[in-house]
Amino acid sequence: MSPKRILVIEDDPEIARLLELELCEAGFEMIWAPNGMQGLVALRERSPDLVILDLGLPDLEGGEIARRAKQAGEIPIIVLTAADAVERKVELLSGGADDYVTKPFHPAELIARIQVQLRHKEGGEVRQVDALLVHLGKRQVHFEEREVRLSPKEFDLLALLASRPGKVFSREEIERHLWGKPLEHSSNVVDVHVANLRAKLREAGAYGYLRTVRGVGYALRKPSE
């Protein structure tokens, strides 16, 4: 199973380096964005599993980033804040944050909070496109109440595509999600996994769900198309 990707939106490179060491040690992959605009781009293009958001960014207000992130999907957001007032914490949670850590913080506490949020997210989350159901916590797929048995990589691929139905994911995006890095240009491993996934979906009666966009990548159809 590919490592969970944590998007860190933090303008302080020292804190970013510390977080990268701790997150990698804990088995996560870190994506760093030094400002809010780059953070929103990474959120859209890299499909992270969780966001760590510093409120004191130079370009965009942290609360605005949290609101935009929530509009893009149900992604957990942990806010790093220097504010210790109860009113401010309530405001953060009401504005879209799922949790917060007050600076200065101990890395072990942050890792523990990340793990809690990811368990909450995956435990009951089901991604659905019409009759196709992807159960993230159970790592099961059903079509019209019939189970579709997939390999771990096939499941990860389908879960990625189902995270944003209609979005075309490039081969590089898929490689980063499934293996944590781009593969050699000559490799056709993504095409093989796509072909196997498409065949298993068809066997279950799920025709036309997986789309190939020539020269671009692959997508799961939008609901009710």
From TrEMBL:
Organism name: Marinithermus hydrothermalis (strain DSM 14884 / JCM 11576 / T1)
Does this UniProt record's set of keywords contain Protein biosynthesis? no
Q: What is this protein called?
A: Two component transcriptional regulator, winged helix family
Q: Where is the Response regulatory domain?
A: 5-118
Protein's cellular compartments: Cytoplasm
CC annotations in GO? cytosol; protein-DNA complex
Q: Which domain of life is it from?
A: Bacteria
| Residues with 4-aspartylphosphate modification | D54
Q: Which residues bind DNA?
A: 124-222
Tell me where in this chain the OmpR/PhoB-type domain is found.
124-222
Q: InterPro entries attached here?
A: CheY-like_superfamily, OmpR/PhoB-type_DNA-bd, Sig_transdc_resp-reg_receiver, WalR-like, WH-like_DNA-bd_sf
GO terms classed as biological process? positive regulation of DNA-templated transcription
What are the alphabetically sorted keywords of the record? Cytoplasm, DNA-binding, Phosphoprotein, Transcription, Transcription regulation, Two-component regulatory system
| N-terminal signal peptide | none
One GO MF annotation is: identical protein binding
